[in-house]
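User: Assemble these into one structure.

Assistant: Restating your components, then the assembled model:
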Amino acid sequence: MKSAKPYIEEHKQRFINELIDLLKIPSISADSAYKKDVIATAEAVRDQLAKAGCDTVEICETPGYPIVYGERTIDPKLPTILVYGHYDVQPPDPLDLWHNPPFDPVIKKTELHPEGAIFARGSCDDKGQMYMHVKALEYMTATNQLPCNVKFMIEGEEEVGSESLGWFVSRNREKLANDVILISDTGMIANDVPSITTGLRGLSYVEVEVTGPNRDLHSGLYGGAVANPINVLTKMIASLHDENKHITIPGFYDDVEELSEEERSKMAEAPFNKEAYKKALDIDDVYGEAGYTTNERNSIRPTLDVNGIWGGYTGEGAKTVIPSKAYAKISMRLVPDQNWEKITQLFKTHFENSAPNGVRVTVKPHHGGQAYVTPIDSDGYRAAEKAYKTTFGKTPIPQRSGGSIPIVSLFEKELKSKTILMGFGLDSDAIHSPNEHFGIWNYLKGIETIPQFYHEFTAIKEGK
Ligand code: BES
Ligand code: MN
Ligand code: MN
């Protein structure tokens, strides 16, 4: 495979403009007001896949948002790569913290992206990273170098739990048959420290509701005499961690995979600068489970966090009231061997049973998924390693990520193939936050690296 660099250089401006066009469509899957835009994005992706060289493209209807499918088959005897990505994005709020409107992309230089970065919701997660694969396919077809078959499956519900994708995959096992799954929806350590993601955490997401009196009450007339659901909820939440920041739910750690000292010291070799980390977040110290480093806390250890909490009066001025209800959304990040459905049940039983007299507590499970780890001696990992070596000039470091792509473990179960997580974003790219961005260097590096992966993977498979 020839270096894609000259082709990328020649078409760079168009590659950027096309991505910007895609980023302008607000494909917010969580908010039904954007339904038309989500569907329009699916259509735009389909059209781009067709232009890039897929010989079949289709919009596959599901009970939820459609899945864009495309393929190019050059010879059924050759290996097949299945590319997965998502065209939906997170809601952009809080809007007032954006320096530009989230769906009106601008290019700006940053300290970590001296060549410029595209600021827009979805630029890194995942439209920009997904689109690298479309442009890599364009390069390989335009220059007649596609070495194997390729299938694309781009979904529109990743940010809301991928419910329809499970439905789709179980009904289309044959159509989706492949030798390796390739995903760019994670990050890497730094532009000069390439890494490949070898693990993702699982997830259990729940919503809790605490009900006290049957109506909001005057906090003078009733205060002190009835349970205040917000007081109760905050105390219940606080008791979910002990003084060592261990989670107190009985049975929570039962199945947690413990890493060997050797694995932990290998992990500790990855470059990490605590001072820079604190500075970037403007915090005076890090925080977390006793006995583990920051990099361990956010990758190989399970966690529990409140994502949102509400109830009572939050408007302007003061209102003296004891609310009838209080609510919170809570997520637990899980690690290998923890079963997300079991953890959800453990949480529900523990939380509901720990309610004091005077309130009723209910736990409503949302979505979840299993953690994922992938070996570094698979054909796919070896091919990726070689591809990075060619384009970055360095061997990539295997690294477990703290994020979740719940569908990845399901892919392995249903399609029986390994997933390679080739992410080109940086943690500082602010995915899910205001001012999300994606470095132009990273975007183009991805487009350059992906064809090398196709080449190396085919060579490994065909060489056998
Ligand atoms: N692309 C992210 C996951 C990610 C980002 C993994 C960076 C590793 C590094 C994905 O879109 C995402 O946001 N996943 C959600 C879970 C989903 C069920 C809403 C997450 O991790 O919160
Ligand atoms: Mn994503
Ligand atoms: Mn995301």
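The pocket of manganese (II) ion (ligand 2) is lined by residues 86, 125-126, 158, 185 (CB under 6 Å).
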